[in-house]
Amino acid sequence: MTLLLLSSCNQRGKAVSSDTASVDSLLCPKYAMGYQVKTQDGMRLVDVGTDYHFALVTSDDMMVPDGYTKIHIPIKSTICMTALQLSNFTILDAHDVVKGLTGTKNLFNKDILQRVKDGRIVKIGTEGNFDTEMVLAANPDVIFISPFKRGGYDAIKETGITLVPHLGYKELDPLGQAEWIKFVGMFIGKEKEACEVFAGIEQRYNELKFKVQSSKFKVLPTVTSGEMHYGNWHAVGGKNYLAQIFRDAGADYVIHDEETAGEDLEFEKMYELAANADYWRILNSYPGEFSYEALKASEPRNELFKAFKERKVIYCNMKQTPYYEISPVEPDVLLKDFVAIFHPELVETDYNPTFYYLLK
Amino acid sequence: MNIQLRITRITLIILLVVAIAVMAIVNLLIGSVKIPVVDICRILVGDDSHEIWTNIIWKSRLPQVLTAIVAGAGLAVSGLQMQTVFRNPLAGPSVLGISNGSALGVAFVVLLSGKIGGVALSRLGYYGDAAMSVAAIVGALAVMLLILWVAQKVKGNVTLLIIGVMIGYLANAIIGVLKFLAPDEDVKSFVVWGLGSFSRVSGDEMILFVVLMCILLPLSFLLVKSMNMMLLGDRYAANLGLNIRRARMLVIISSGILVAIVTAYCGPIMFIGLAVPHLARAIFRSSDHRILMPATALCGALLALVCNFIARMPGFEGALPVNSVTALVGAPVIAAVIFGRRKNEVAE
Question: Fewer C-beta neighbours within 10 Å, C or N terminus of chain A?
Answer without folding.
Answer: N
